[in-house]
Design goal:
By secondary structure, the protein is an alpha/beta fold. It has two domains: 3-211, Rossmann fold (3-Layer(aba) Sandwich); 219-280, Helicase, Ruva Protein, domain 3 (Orthogonal Bundle). It has eleven helices and nine strands. The strands form two sheets. Strands 4-3-2-5-6-9-7 form a seven-stranded mixed beta sheet, sandwiched between helices. Strand 3, helix 5 (96-105) and strand 4 form a beta-alpha-beta unit. Helix 9 packs across helix 11 (266-280). The chain starts with a helix and ends with a helix. Bound molecules: S-adenosyl-L-homocysteine (SAH). Residues 41-46, 68-71, 74-75, 89-92, 115-117, 130, 132, 135 line the site of S-adenosyl-L-homocysteine.
């Protein structure tokens, strides 16, 4: 254990945090552990005490949490006081030593050095992440495939708008349809870029995804679903009837006649996917 780190870690009382104190802690720890921050891994630490408290409230009483990108482990440490077990998956090996030291203080934290995109999410774990923005779409597809029951993630503000977008709006697209098919999605709160150190170039939003008990489509049709939505939304302003006839060789269901692609509801798209799947079978 590097000198003084113990007192730093033990001072992480969620009720007594301040922005200034958190920035000092981040600076001290990165220096002590000789960590060089890497932009390409989206390393922006959360230093907003109000945001941290709201996250803690959301995670209070959780059983098993998988944290993607624990970084210095400050949130990991804080969360471990309100949930039974926390596993952190961190891609950057240079955080290994500090994360090991944090684990030393808590017997309910475990850390794995791995790329979260290649890591199989253990069953029934809910996910928390101050997510690096570059993996947002891929990780959400992974949540869908691996049946993650619940995920609390920070995403770029504009991406949050896409996740909750309704048919007909300019934000509505493939990602909205995919996520809304499997999850009830809620924007919890918007976070300014100044909630992070160093600040990213965009604002963020904390989003909660809760798995629907009856998803609109089965996981076995997911591949077809992704192909169909990808094709449809490459013609988002076109008439659905034409796209279906020209590219999928199927007749448009009567109730979708006259609609444009971006006006299709999640249920409309599910019915198209079912048609495509039944044609292939
Ligand atoms: N949880 C900390 C740090 C968030 S910054 C906090 O909120 O303060 C994002 C973290 O995700 C960094 O530690 C970064 O190294 C890590 N990361 C980036 N890409 C990753 C990936 N593919 N898999 C796992 N961790 C990743």
């Amino acid at each position: 254990m590097i000198g003084n780190v113990r007192s730093i870690i033990e001072s992480l009382d969620v009720d007594k945090l301040s922005r200034r104190k958190l920035i000092i802690i981040v600076k001290r720890l990165t220096k002590k552990y000789n960590i060089k921050l890497r932009k390409r891994y989206g390393q922006h630490f959360l230093i907003d005490p109000a945001a941290i408290r709201r996250i803690v409230d959301q995670l209070r009483g959780c059983d098993k949490v998988l944290e993607i990108g624990p970084g210095l482990g400050l949130l990991t440490y804080i969360i471990s006081h309100v949930s039974r077990l926390v596993i952190g998956v961190e891609i950057d090996r240079s955080f290994m030593r500090i994360l090991k030291d944090i684990c030393y203080y808590r017997n309910n934290i475990d850390v794995v050095i791995a790329d979260a995109l290649k890591f199989k999410i253990p069953r029934s774990f809910q996910v928390f992440s101050n997510l690096p923005f570059y993996i947002t779409s891929d990780i959400i597809v992974k949540f869908v495939r691996e049946e993650v029951p619940k995920a609390l993630i920070t995403v770029q503000k504009e991406v949050a708008n896409r996740l909750v977008a309704s048919p007909g709006s300019s934000d509505y697209g493939r990602l909205s349809v995919l996520v809304q098919c499997f999850y009830n999605v809620r924007k919890v709160f918007v976070m300014s870029r100044l909630s992070f150190y160093p600040p990213p170039e965009v604002d963020a939003c904390l989003v909660l995804l809760e798995r629907k008990s009856e998803p609109c489509i089965s996981i076995s049709s997911l591949e077809a679903f992704e192909k169909v939505t990808s094709l449809l939304f490459s013609f988002r302003n076109k008439n659905v009837e034409k796209v279906l006839r020209n590219y999928l060789n199927i007749h448009v269901p009567d109730d979708l006649r006259g609609k444009r692609v971006f006006e299709l509801s999640v249920d409309d798209i599910v019915s198209i996917v079912k048609l495509v799947v039944s044609c292939v079978e």
